[in-house]
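Notes on consecutive records. When two proteins share a document, each keeps its own sequence and its own C-alpha cell line. Never mix them. Below: protein one.
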Amino acid sequence: MDPATDTDTGTGAAEREGAQAQRVHQLGIDVGSTTVKAVVLDGNRVLYSDYRRHNADVRAELGRLLADIEARHPGLEVVSAITGSGGLTTARAMGIPFVQEVIAGTEATRRLHPEVDVVIELGGEDAKLTYLHPTPEQRMNGTCAGGTGAFIDQMATLLHTDASGLDALAAEHTQLYPIASRCGVFAKSDIQPLINQGAAHEDLAASIFTAVATQTIAGLACGRPIRGNVMFLGGPLHFLPQLREAYKALLPKADSFVTPTGAQLYVAIGAALMAAKTAPPAGQSAQARPMGDEAGAGGVPSAADGGPSPQARPTGDEAGAGRARPRSLADLINALATAEVGAESPRMRPLFASEEERAEFERRHGAEVVPKAEPAEARGRCWLGIDAGSTTIKAVVIDSRGRIVFTHYASNEGDPVAAAVEIVRRVRTGLPEGAVIGRSCATGYGEGLVKAALTMDEGEIETMAHYRAAESVAPGVTSVIDIGGQDMKYLRIRDHAVDSISVNEACSSGCGSFLQTFAQTMGTDVRAFARAAMDSTDPVDLGTRCTVFMNSSVKQAQKEGADVRDISAGLSYSVVRNALYKVIKLKDPSDLGERVVVQGGTFLNDSVLRAFELLTGRQVVRPDIAGLMGAYGAALTARMHDSGQGASSLATVEALEGFSVETTRKTCRLCQNHCQMTISTFSNGERHVSGNRCERGASLERVPKKSELPNLYDWKYKRIFGYRRLTAGKAFRGDMGVPRVLGMYENYPFWFTMLTKLGFRVMISGRSNHALFEEGMESIPSENVCYPAKLVHGHIEALLKKGVTNIFYPCVAFEQGSEGADNCFNCPVVATYPEVIRNNMERLSDPGVRFISPFVNFSNREYLPAHLVGAFKEHGYDIPLEEMRAALDAAWEEDAAVKAEIRQKGRESLEWMRAHGVRGIVLAGRPYHLDPEINHGIPEVIVGLGMAVLTEDSVIDARLERPLRVRDQWTYHSRLYEAAARVGDEPDLEMVQLNSFGCGVDAITADQVQEILEGRGDVHTVLKIDEVSNLGAARIRLRSLEAAVSERCAPAPRATEAEGTAPTARAESEAVAREGTASEVARREGTEAAGREVAAPASSAPLVSAAVDTALHEDPASAAAREEQAGARAGHIEVRASFTKEMREAGYEILAPQMSPIHFRFLSPLLARAGLRVRVLERTSRQSTETGLKYVNNDSCYPAIVVIGQLVEEFVSGRADPDRTAVGITQTGGMCRATNYAALLRKALRDAGYPQVPVIALSVQGLEDNPGFQLGLKDIHKAVQAFVIGDAIQSMLLRVRPYEAVQGSAMELYRRWDRIVREWIEDGRSQEFGGGRARRLTYAGLIRACVREFDALALRDIPRKPRVGLVGEILVKFHPDANNHAVDVIEAEGCEAELPGLMQFFHYSSATAEWDQANLGIGGRQRRVMPLVLWALERYEAPVRRAFAATGGKFEPHRRIGEMIPRSQDIARLGNQAGEGWYLTAEMVDMIEHGCPNIICAQPFACLPNHIVGKGMFRALRNRYPQSNIVAVDYDPGASEVNQLNRIKLMLATAVQGRDGSGDDDGVLDLVGIDFEDAPGAGVGAGAGGTGGRRVVGLGMPGMPPRRAAALR
C-alpha cells in the first residue's frame, strides 16, 4: 500500500509509532496463484493493507511488501500467519504457521459478517464455497482450475481484451450462448467458433461469466442448496460486477447478496485473525510452546520401507503447528531472503544435450524447402488456397510452374471474413498482367463462411488439404501430424490413400492457442517464447492430458523459481505428449511409417518439433511452410480440379470495394432443438448460416422439407417415447412420473406398458435442454460425472415442478442377456444413479413425494413380479401378484416388438440406401445418445452431409467372432461390438462411436471397437461429446471420414497419374495438374451425377463393389491377398498366453503390482510356499506412469494407468525377461471397468512388443483359467491368516506412530514384526522372534505377541489427536505412491490416520448373498456359499479381536460387516456393488460413528462407482452427521499435487479446529481505520499506473505483463 493511503497519518502518527513498536500486531499474508496480499491488524484497527501481483516471483514481491511495511512502521513486532494456494512453500521458508485459505476466509467472514450464510470465493485458480449456517461446511475445487480467474483471463485474451474489458462487454449483452461449464478448455472450444461466426463479443462475455457461475455451483454445491445471505469474495468477484450478476441469475432462491468492500483482502484479514489466536498467552515465552513432534508435526517414514517419505513434511512452525511467536518484520524479511525453496516439480531431458545436437537439428530442418517466387514473377494460371483456421488465417498462391508466389499467415483477429477480404484484395492487385487466378479453394474451420463471402470456387475438408500438401512435399508420406491453434490431426496413409484420420475431440488441450495464450500472459509473444525453450537446460515436467492441469503445474513451477525457458520447453513436451497419447495413441514409433510429415503453425515452434523427435525417436520432415500446409493443400486442390478454361469465380477487386456483411441471429423453430443460428448476409448476395444442426435451418424455403435420407436416431427417439398415456379418468392408480433419462432410452417402452397396465397415467418429463440442466445443477454431487447423468437432476426437478409427486426411476443393474456376451451389466452410473438422486435432491423428501427406485435384474424374469409387488407396496401401492404378472407379460411383449421394429427399420434403411447409392453411418453409442441435447444434433449433421444415420441396434446380426480381447460385460457395448463387425464387412457402412466425456467404460470399449474395425480394414471414428454444443469439430471429423472412405474406395491411380499429383509441379506435369488424376476426375463426375440423382452429393462416391467387377481383373497375388484379408477379419481375437504348469516348473518369475505396502510384503513368501517365484513391484515412478499413459487408453482410470505402467515398464527397462516372466493382476468380475484391467494389460504388453508374456488374472469367480497358478487349501489358509495379520499391524502402527515417545520407534517395531511374519509364513517359525533361534509360533500366539509389543511401545502422554480416515478406491487408498503419501501428510499435520482393513473388502464381497437373491433374483450356489465364506473369514479374525480387547481400548478391531450394513442402508443400499460399492459408504458411516468424523475419500479422476457411493453420498452423510468433515480428492497422472495437498489441508485444518473448538466464542469484529473503497485493489498502491481511466484487471494467469498488471498490485 502506498504510504499516502496508510491510515496512520496525521499529527499523532509519530507518537503512535513508538507505542506500536511495544505492542504485538497481527500480520496476515495471502499468497494466491497470481497475487500476494497483506494486512496488519492492531486489535480491531487495520494498520496496513496491500494487494499486489507477484508475477510468479513470490519471494521477491513479498519481500518488497514486507519491506514497505517495515519502512512505514519501523521495529514493528508481529505474530504472523500465511494462507493461500501458494502460501505453503512460503510458510515453510519463513518458519511461520500456514492457515488453509478457506479456513482463513471463513474466519474473516464469521467475525465481520455473522449474518452471512454462504460464501462464494473465486481466486486465480481456486474456487471455494463455504456454508456457515445452519451447519458449517467448506469446499474447494479439485483437480481442475476451470471456471476461475485463470479461465476468465484466457477467455479475455481470446476476445482481445482483459478481464475488466470483458466485464464492460458483458454489461451490454442481449443474449446468452450455452458455453461448456465443466472445463475451461471445453468452454474455449465453444467460444472460438462463435467468435469466427461473428457472434457479438458482448454476448460472448456474458456467456463466459454464466459458464463460470455454472461451474462453481454445479461443481461445489454438490447437492446442498445455496440459500440465505450469500457473500462474494475474491479478486474476480470483487472487480467484475457482471460476474456477480451471473451468479445472482443462477441463484434465484437466495435471500440476498453481499459484496463487501475490500473483498479481495478478506482471506488475508482472516489469516491475521488466525495469527492472533496462535499468539502465546500474556506472560508466556514464545520458546515455552511445544515444538516439533509435540506440536503434532514431523516427517513420517514410509510404511513400506522405513525410509523418508518423498512427501515428508517439515516440523514445528513450518507445518503450521503450535503457537506463533512474535517476530520483527526484519527477521521475517531475512528468513524469506535466506531460506532455500526447493524445486518439487520434476524435470525432463534438455531439448539439446549439446551444441552439436542443436546444429545438426537446425541443418536438417533447413533443407525441406518448397520453391518460391515473388508475386511479380508469377506466370500463367494460378491457384489460390485459403485456410481459415480457428485462430489464424493462411493463404497460398501457386503459379503454373508450381512455385509459391504469395503467402499470408496471421491471426484472424476474431474476424476471418475481414481477414480473407484483405488477402484477396492483395492477391488481385499483386499479380502481374498475364497471371490469372484459375480456381480458388477454401479449407479450415471457417471454410464455409469464407467461401460464401468471397464466392470461391470450392471448399475442401482440411484433413484432405493437409494430406495433399504433405504428399506434394514428401512423396510417399506415411503419416501426417498437424497441430494448429485448436486442432490436432493425425492422418495415417497407406498406398497413397488416407487410411484413417484422428482428430482431437471436444477438448483443444495442448494445441497452439494454449502456447500462444501462455506466451501472452508471460509478457512475450509466441515466437520469443519458443526461442526461449531452445535454450532450456532443465525443462519442467508439466504433465499432460488437460490444459488446465498444465496451467496449475506452470504456476507451481513459477513459484519454485523456474524461468521462462524451462517452462516453455516443458510446455513443448506437454503439447507433443498430448498429441501422442490422446490423438495418435502411438505405441511404437514404427507405426508412423518411414515418411513422417509434421505441419501446422505449432510445429513452426522448433522446441515442439524437437520434443516430437525426442519422444518418438524419429526424424521427421517439417516443410519450411509448415504453418501454411492447409492453404497449400487447398491451392493444390484448386489446381487439381481446374478445367483450364475461364477464370475463377473469386471476388474481384471491384466487388470488394463496397464489401460488407450483415450478421443477424435467430432461433430456428422447425423442430424442438431450437438451434441458435448466426446468419451472415454478404453484400454480394451470398449468405452463410452457422449454428444450425441440419440443412433445414439453412434453407431459404418458407417451410423447408425434411431430408429423405434415413435418420434412425430421429425415428427411434419418436418410437421409444411416442406413447399416449391414459386419461385421468382411466388412470385408477393416479399419475406416475418417469424421467426421460439414461436407461429410459432403452427401457421406456417396457416401463410405460407395465405402468399403464397397472392403471397409472405415465407422466414422462419433457425433452432435454441446457436450461433443464441448469435447473437441476445445484444438486449435482460430482462435477466430473457425464453430462447425461447431470441432466437427470433437471428432469426430476421438472417433474416435481409440474406437480408430479410420484416418480418411478428403478436401478436396473442387469439388462437382458445377449448371446455370446460374458455378462449383461449396465455401467455403474446407468445402473445406480437413482441412488444419487434419492440422496441429493431435497424436494424428494417433501411430504407426499414418493420416489420409487427398486433394484431390478432384467436377466431374470421369474423373480420380477413378486419383487416389484413388494417394491410398490413399500410406497403404499397394494398391487395383486397376478395383476403385476399380467402387466409384466404385456411389457415384455412390447419390449420385444420395439426391438424387432428397430431391426426391421434398419433393414428398410439399408435397402433404401443401396437403391439410391448412398452411404450410411452407424452412429453407435448408448441408448441415451438419442437425446438431441446430448448428441448436439450430430445425426442431423450426418444427414446434411448426404449420409444416412443408423443405430447400432438396427444392424446387429450376431456375426461377430468371439471371444473378444476384453471381457464383454456391458449390454449396451455388446451391441457396439456386434455392429462394428457388420460395418467392417459392408463397404457402404461406416461407424462413428459417440463417447460422453467422463464415460470410463469407453476407455475399454473404444479400443475393442477399433480392433474389430481395423481387423476388417475399416476406419474407427470416435466423437467425444459433452456440454459443448459446437458442431464444427464434429463436422470436420465426419467430412474427413467421408473423404477418407471415398479416397480408399476410388480405383488406385496409375503410376503416371499418381506422378501428376506429386510434389511441386514440373513443366511436363502441368496438363495433368490442370485436369487432376483420372481417379479424381472420375470421382468428381461420379459425385456430381449421384448428387443430381439423390440430392446427397457428398455421400455418393462410387463404391468399388458397385463400380468394378474385380473378378475379371484379379491376378493370383490379389487372390492370395484377399484370402489373407479374410483370415484377418477376426483380428480382434487374440490367443491368450496362459501361465502353464511347465512355466511354473521352469521357475518363471511372476511380477505383482504393489497395492498395500504392509500386506503385499507377505506375498512373496506366501506364494513361494506354493512353488511360485513372485516379485512385488514396491514403488511406482514418474517413468512407469508415463509408460502407462503410453500403452493404456488415456481415458482409463488412474489405477489402471499406474499398475499397467508399472508392469510394462519392467520389460521396457530390461529389468524383466519377457521370455521367462509372467505378470499377475486381479479381476473383480463386477460392473466396474476394473474387471477389464487384465484385457488392458494384455493389450499394453502386445503394443509394447511382449505378447508372449502370460497374464495371470486372479478373480474370486475364476473368470479365467491359469493352469500353472494353482493354490492349495493350505496356501489359501495361510494367505488369509497373513492378510488378517497385515490388517492388525496396519491398524496398530497407525494408532501408535503419532504418539511415539522416541521418534522412529514405531517403524522399528513394525520392521521387526514384518520380518517375524515373513519368516513365520515360510515354515511356522521365526528366528527374529526367538532371538536368533528358530521358534515355532501358532497363529493366535503370533497375534497375541505382536499386539503385546505394540501395546507396550512407549508413547507420549498427550491428548488424542484428531482422527482422519482414508477411504476410497482400493488401490488409491492403500498405495502411498498413488495417493501422494496421504498418510504422511495426515500425520505431519498433527492428526492420526485411520485406514480400513484389506480383509474387509473380502467381507463386503461376501455379505450380500441374501439381499441379492431377494432383490436381484441371484441365488443358486452363491446364496449357499457366500454366507459360509463370510463366517469363515470372521473366524480368522477372532484372535485379533481377543488380543485387541486385552489392550483396554487402545486398539479397536474393525466392526463386523453385519453390524455395518444396517447403519448405512438407508443411505447406500446393498445394490450398489460396483467398485467399493455400498461398503465405501458403510466405511464412512462406521468411521464417523466411532470417533473419526474427518475423512479423505481418495478416488481416481472420473471414477464411475465413486460418482455414486463416494461423492454421491456426501450430502446424506453430512445431513445425518453434522460433525462429519469429508473431502473427495481426485488422483490422476496430470493432477496438481499442490492442489490435492491444499484440499487435504483444508479438511485437516477443519479437523483440528473442530477438536480445539477454536473460533466458536469470538465476538463480532468491527474493523476500523481503512476505507476499503480506496484500497490498493482500486488501483492505488505500489506500482499502480495509469490505464486511461479504466482499471486493467488480470485475474488468474501466471506472470501478467506489467502493462496489464498495474491495477492489481
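Protein two starts on the next line and is unrelated to protein one.
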Amino acid sequence: MAWTKNQEQAIYQKGDNILVAAAAGSGKTAVLVERIINKITNENIDVDKLLVVTFTNAAATEMRERVLDAIYKKLESDSNNLRLQKQIVLLNKSHISTIHAFCLEVIRNNFYKTNISPNFRLANTPEIELLKMEVIEDVFDELYESKDEDIINLVNTYGSSYRDDDKLKELILKIYKFIQSIPYPEEWLEEQTEKFNLNLEQDFSETTWGNIIIKNAKDEIEGYINTLKNISKKLKRDDELEKWYVCILDDINKLEKIEKLQKWDEIYNYLSELSFETWPSKRNFVSELKDKAKGIRDKIKDAVVGGKPSSLRKRVFIYNSQKANEDIYAMYPILKAIKDITIKFSTAYREAKLEKNIIDFNDIEHLALEILVKKDENGNYVPTEVAKHYQDIFEEIAIDEYQDSNDIQEEILKQVSKGNNIFMVGDVKQSIYKFRQAKPELFLEKYNTYKDNKIQLFVNFRSRKNVLDLSNVIFENIMSKDFGSIEYNENEFLNVGQDYLETDKKILDGAELHIIDEAETIENENEEDDEEVLEKAEIEARLVAKRIKELINSNYYVFDKKRGYRSLEFKDIVILLRKTTGIAPIYEKELTDLGYPVFSDIGTNYFETIEIQTIMNLLKIISNPDNDIALVSVLRSPIGKFTDNELIEIRIECPKESFYNAMLVNEKHKEKINEFFELIEDFRSKEEYLKLDELIWYIYERTGYYNYVSLMTNGNIKTANLKMLFEKAKDYEQGSFKGLYNFINFIDRVTKHNSDMGAPKLIGENEDVIRIMSIHKSKGLEFPIVFLCGTGSQFNMMDLNANILMHSELGFGPKYINYERKIAYNTLAKEAVRHIMKKELKEEEMRLLYVALTRAREKLIITGVDKNLKKSIEDKQEMLESSDNVITKGIAEKAKTYLDWLETVFLSDDRMKSLVQLFEHPKNENSGTKDEKNKTEELVIEDRPINEKLNEILTWEYPQAELTQIEGKSSVTKIAKKVQEDEEELKLKKPKFLEGELPLTKAEIGTTVHLVLQKLDFKQSYTMEKIQELLELLEQKQIITTKQKEAVPKEKIYEFTRSKIFAELAEAKEVYREQPFYINIPVKELYEIKSEENILVQGIIDLYYINKNNELVLVDYKTDYVPENDETSLKDKYTSQLEIYKRALEQALNRKVDSIYIYSTYLGKEIKMWV
C-alpha cells in the first residue's frame, strides 16, 4: 500500500508521546495496524509488549485480525522467519483490548491489593439495578430514622411536590453515576461542595462562576459593539445623518466602558445607572438607513438594559456581590447534605457488592486505579509497584479513538506509561460521547501544545470531491477555536484521496438540501413537543421516500472498491437521524409501503413491542392475577383467545370487583375461563422449580405463541425479540437476585427510565436493505448515499433545566429553592454552569453534524423542516448584515438546529451555491394523511372554459331567471337533504349562548363518531382499551373536546373495527379517506327546471379503496337513527348522494366503481348498495 508522507510519519516516528489527529476517512486504523507491524518486524518488539486500547470489543477483535493478516502476508515472503511465527502465538495473549478488558486483567492479577476476593464476578445490569434500588431505599430509611432536620429540609427542597422523595433518590443516583468518570470521586465531591462555603465579603468576580458570567457578558457586549460599528460606518457616509451617527458613537463608547471593567460590583453599578441617549428626531426627514439603525439600536438597548427578564441587567447582573455570595452560600448546607448522602450511598453500595462478591462496570476502572496509584507522604498520587511493573512491560501504549477518553481512563493509562511512550490516535471533530462523560478537552490540550510530535492525517480516502468540499465550506464557516474548540481552516480541510475512475455510466455526485417550509406565522421559541416532532417527521419521511424511489428507478451506478462501478442497490442507502426513538418507524413505514426492504438499527422501544408486552403481562399475572391491565391484555391476546365482547360481558356482570374476581363468578364463559386458569396454574406450578429463562421458553412452547408471531408480518423481528427476552432472563438468573417478582421489578424500572436494552442483530453487513440509524451508530461506517434527515429538529437542551447541573470542572450548578416560601430561581452558579454546558452541548451537536456529513462516499442528501422559511432567512440575513457577512462565534452559537447552520452558511458563502442543490418544498407538498399521500390534489372534473366577448358580457340577459334562485355551487349534502328540508316545519331555536351548557345533539355526536372513524389505523387490531386511548389522544391534540370524547359510543367504533370493511382495509392495496372533489352536474338532473346549464357540486368522499382483488370500493359512513332497523329506508335516503359520489369517483379515476357500501354505526353493519 502506498502511504502518504504524513501516514509514514505516523507509522515510524518514535521517541516521545505522539498525537495523531486523523480526520474522517483518513485511514487511521490502517496506520495503527501498520505501526504495530513495524514495531514487531523492524523494531523487534514483541506484540505482547504493546498495549493497544480500542473503544469497543468489536474494534479490538478487528484490530487483532488485521494484525494477524498482516503477519501472515509478511510470512508469505519470509516463511522461515521464526520471529514472525512467534508473534502469532503471542498475539493470543497480547494486550489489544478495550480499557475495561485491560483493567479487568489488572484486577484479576492483583486482587489481593484490594478487599475483593479472587473469585469475584462482574454483575449483570438487572442485578446492579435491583441492588441500587435496594441500597438507596435502605439508606433513606436509615436517614429518616435519625430524624435529622437537614434531611427533612433536603427532601422538601429536592423531592417531588415537597412530599415525595423519589426525585431526591434519582438525584443521588444521578450524582453517583456522574462522578464515576472522575478518578477520585469522593475528593471531587468534597472539593466542589466546599466551593459554596465562600467568603461573603469577596467580589463575586473572584469566584469561578462570576468570572465565567463576566466573560460571557463581555463577549455579548463585544458582539453588540461590532454591530453598532457596522451601522455607524454606513451612517457616517451621509452628512445628513450625522446626529444619528453621533448618537450611535455615544452608545459604542458606553458599551466599551463595560469591557474595561473587571470587578462584579463595578459592572453591576454601571449597568444599574446606564441609560442611552434619546434617539434624535427631525420633522419630515425620512431615511430608511436611519430607521434601520434605530431598530438595531433598540434591540441592543433592550438586550443590555431593557426591562425584559432576558436583558443583561435583569438576567445576569441582578444584584451585587454580597447578595450573589449570599445566594451561593445558602446552598452550602443543602449541597453538603447531598454530598454526605451520596457518599453514604456509595459506601453502602460498595459493601453490598462485597457481600455478594460482585463488582459493577464502573468498579472495573476504579479498582484498577486503586491498584495502580497510592498517595505519598505529601499527599500526591504516585505509581505503585504494580504500575511500575506495567511501565517496564509496555514499550508503547497506543490509544485508538483518543478523543472519547475520560478523566479516569487518562489517569490509568498515564500510570502504566513510561511518560514518553503513548501513541494517541483520534479526531476531536468526531468526539460525540459527552453524555458518557467523554472529555475531548484531553485531546485538545495536547493538540494545542504538541508541536513536532503532532501529526495530522487530512487526506480522505472515502468521499468524492464535492462531498468533501461541502463539509469543508460548512465547517470553515461555523467551527472555530472559540466555538468548536478547533480552528477549522486549510490545516483541517479534508483532501481528496480516493481515486474515483471516470465512466460514461450515470453516477451520483454532489449534495442536495431539501427544506420543507411549514410557513407558520408565529415561531415557537420553546422546546418542540412530541406531537410537533412527529408531524414534522411524517412530512419529511414522505419526501425522503419519494426521493429514494426516484434514485432507485433512475439506473444510477455507484463505485465499489472491489467490483468497480455497479448498479445502485438498497444497501447503498442510509438514513441518518439525530434522534431515532419514535421517528425511525415513521421512515420505515413510508419505505415499506413502497415495497422496499428497510431495517431500523435502533435499540429503544423494545419493551413497547406487542409480543414483549404480551409475555411480560403474562409473567405479571403468574406473579399476581389481580393486575387487571395485565390480565385483560393477556386474555385478549392469542394466548387467552377471549373476544372483546366476551370481556365486556364479564365486566358488565361484575363491574365493581377486580377482573380476576369477576372471572371467578362468571357462569356464561365458565368453560373458557377455567381453561385459561388451568393454563396459568400450570405456569405458576412450573415457576416454583424452573429457572426463569426455562419458564419463559416453556411458556413459548406451551402456548405456541413463539410460532404464532413467527407467521406475522416482520415475524423474524418478533421472534428475535422473544429470544432476546429469553436471553435477558438467562443473564438475570446468573445474578444474585432470583425469582419472577424481582425480574418484573427490574423490567419495570428499565421501562420507567427508558433505558436502552439493545436490540437483536437481525441483518448482516452485506444485507441488501436500506438502513435507518442514529448518527452515533453510523460513526466509523460509510455509505455511497447518505440521507441526513431531521435537520430542522431543535437541539435537545432539556438537561439544562435540571435542579442541579453537574460539570467535571465547574462542579455543581444548583437552583435556589425555598420550599417554605415556595420560591425557586437559578443561582448565578447555575447560570454560569448552564452557559458552559449549553455551549458544550452545541459544540457536540456540531461534531455530530461533522460525523454525519463525512459518512457519505458519493451523494449527500440533507432534509429538514423550517417552521417559517421566509422569517428564518430574514433573521439570518439581518444577523449577517451586522457582521459584514461573516458567521461570528455569536451567530454560530445562536443556532438551534442543524438547518440553522446550513442556511446561515448558504447565505454567507457563495461557494455553497455551486456545491449543493437547494430545493424548497411547501408543507402541503408532502402533507396529508398517510392513506392519501399520493392523492393530495382535489379531483376537478369537467372544467368548461368561457370565452364571451366584453360587450356580450355587459349586455347579456339571462334567459332562465329561475336559475338565479339556485346556487351555482352546491354540496352533495345540501342536495341530498333538499327534499327533507322542504318538508320540515320551520323551528326557531334559541341562540346557544342563551341556552347555557347543553348536552351534545345527536348530529354533533354523529359528527364526532364520523371524525373518530377517520382517525382509525386500519393496520391495527383494536380493543375497547385502544379505542379509549385513541379518544384520549384526540382530546390531548384538541381534535375533540372532553364532552365529545365522553359522548362517543365506543362500542360502535369497536363494532366497525370488527366489520368486513375494516378487515378488507387491512389488506387493501390503496386506501383514501376524506377525499374532496368537484363535479359539474346538469341542473335538470337535480331540479325540475329545463336547462342545459350545469351546477358545480362539491363533496367529500368518506372512504374508497382498492382491495386485494383490485376492486374499487366506495364507502360512506352514516350515523343516523334507523327506524325499526329498516335498511331500505337508509338506502333510499342516500341513493342520490351516493350516485353523485360514484359518478365523481369514476370520472376522476377513469374506472368503474365495483362496490358501494353504507356503513351504519346505528345498525353496526355494512349495507351493500347497487353497482
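For the record: The radius of gyration is 36 Å.
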